[in-house]
Design a protein that fits this description.
six-stranded mixed β-sheet, three-stranded mixed β-sheet, 9 strands, 16% strand, binds ligand BES, binds zinc ion
């Protein structure tokens, strides 16, 4: 997290640092797969059209072609200037590192699943959900079926130390959102809340537009979220690692429950 917001601050989708951040994420996944001696993990870039140099990063855990599970968040920031850097710690270094932690834990676990788990780091969200638009198109064009999508965008800020996880209610699938609420209560044992953006505020909307079920657990109620996002003050020390860890637990519960672990000897 510190690494992402210092070395890889300023991850604007049309910058070479933004591309380097994509390469770093790809390398982190490749090293995790090598360390766990797994050959059923693949990573690829999905191009963000012709106007942005930063690709999205799509990881597939497992070899099955059944309808899969997607866990993702965007890793780009807004454009920065020398006197106005964009660390993008909460928006969305927090979600990026939450997703990376989920991926690394799943890979290291050596579990295999009936359904594939796709881990996606979206580019160019801040430019208008551009990267996720291209990722959804890529899945549709390749006929890659998806059962359920978990969006993680801003997982680190907890207003007045409120540990509640708030489920966004618009541009999402209602039954999937309710199911995640039950997973939260059962596995994470933290309070549950609801809130809404009121507009297509993140990449879940790209999946929802394609008719694919998405859910979006969020750090705070809308309006009580991190006031520093999109500024040079969106830095790490304002964030709660404990709050982020709860999203890692929720994402793991979701991935494991929906993808259905196989017995170790049935690989
Ligand atoms: N992480 C934000 C979305 C967000 C902000 C959700 C505050 C809830 C509370 C996202 O990166 C973002 O900035 N979205 C844009 C819209 C997008 C289509 C460019 C926004 O909210 O203005
Ligand atoms: Zn943003």
């Amino acid at each position: 997290m510190n690494y992402l917001t210092t070395i890889f601050r300023d991850r604007y989708a049309n910058s070479s640092r933004g591309v380097k951040a994509a390469e770093w994420l790809k390398d982190e996944i490749t090293s995790a797969a090598t360390a766990a001696n797994r050959s059923d993990v693949s990573v690829r870039f999905v191009k963000t059209g012709d106007n942005y140099m930063q690709p999205s990063v799509v990881v597939k855990i497992g070899l099955s072609n059944e309808p899969g599970v997607v866990i993702g968040g965007h890793f780009d920031t807004l454009l920065s200037y020398p006197n106005d850097p964009k660390p993008g710690a909460d928006d969305n270094g927090s979600g990026t590192i939450t997703v990376l932690n989920i991926a690394e834990t799943l890979i290291a676990s050596n579990l295999s699943f009936k359904k594939p788990i796709y881990i996606v780091f979206y580019s160019a969200e801040e430019e208008g959900l551009i990267g996720s638009g291209f990722v959804v198109q890529d899945f549709l064009a390749q006929n890659i079926p998806v059962d359920a999508v978990l969006q993680l965008d801003m997982t680190g800020f907890s207003a007045q130390n409120d540990q509640t996880i708030y489920f966004i209610q618009d541009h999402v699938n209602k039954p999937l959102t309710q199911y995640l609420g039950r997973l939260l209560t059962h596995y994470v044992k933290k309070p549950i809340g609801t809130t809404q953006c009121g507009y297509a505020c993140s990449d879940h909307a790209s999946w929802d537009d394609a008719g694919i079920a998405a859910a979006f657990p969020f750090e705070a109620s809308f309006g009580n979220d991190d006031p520093y996002i999109h500024t040079s003050n969106d830095t790490m020390e304002k964030l709660s690692i404990d709050h982020m860890t709860d999203f890692v637990k929720l994402g793991l519960a979701f991935g494991i429950e929906v993808a259905e672990p196989l017995r170790a000897d049935s690989k």
